[in-house]
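Hi R.,

Here's the chain you asked about this morning:
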Amino acid sequence: MVPGLEPAELPADAIEVGRIADAWGIKGWFKVLPHSASPEALFSSKRWYLQPSERGAKTFNGTVLLSIKEAKEHSDSLVAAAHEVAGRSEAERLKGARVFVSRSSFPAAGIDEYYWVDLIGLPVVNREGVALGEVKDLLSTGPQTVLVLEYPKDDGGEPGRAGERMIPFVSAYVDQVDVPGRRILVDWQPDY
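And here is the predicted structure, written out as tokens:
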């Protein structure tokens, strides 16, 4: 067990936002690999919940809470310091840990900005009211993001088989994103 880490209850709205890669320096800092290219949630939250990696040696079990002193960008990742982690050897024991933060601690998204996690699972319908599927994933293709939809295939083949549809997440095709109303309205046809 890593000394000084308190067992905690994972919040119901917890989102996995990154993974601890390794210790960084000698004063207890650690390197974090964020799951997002814009890791604002890691900077805005002072309470990180850790769970051990699914693979490799486990230095702790269950969920533990870290009180973050400071987090900052460092080259292609970010580094952080926590009140509970005093030295390099303690930071090394966190290697591989999965980092979660409460969704309620994410900074507010700007106008026409959305967290990908809020779009996953939303039904997508076109202007004619035809259901096109549900957002299963998003892909960043460089210049734009693409919604990856999953829909039930009704082609007489294998029952329960899902089809996949991709729609560029740009204003030319996306008319409205209603996160509270759980719906995305698009100008797209099923046969595109």
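One quick note: The longest strand covers residues 14-24.

Cheers,
M.
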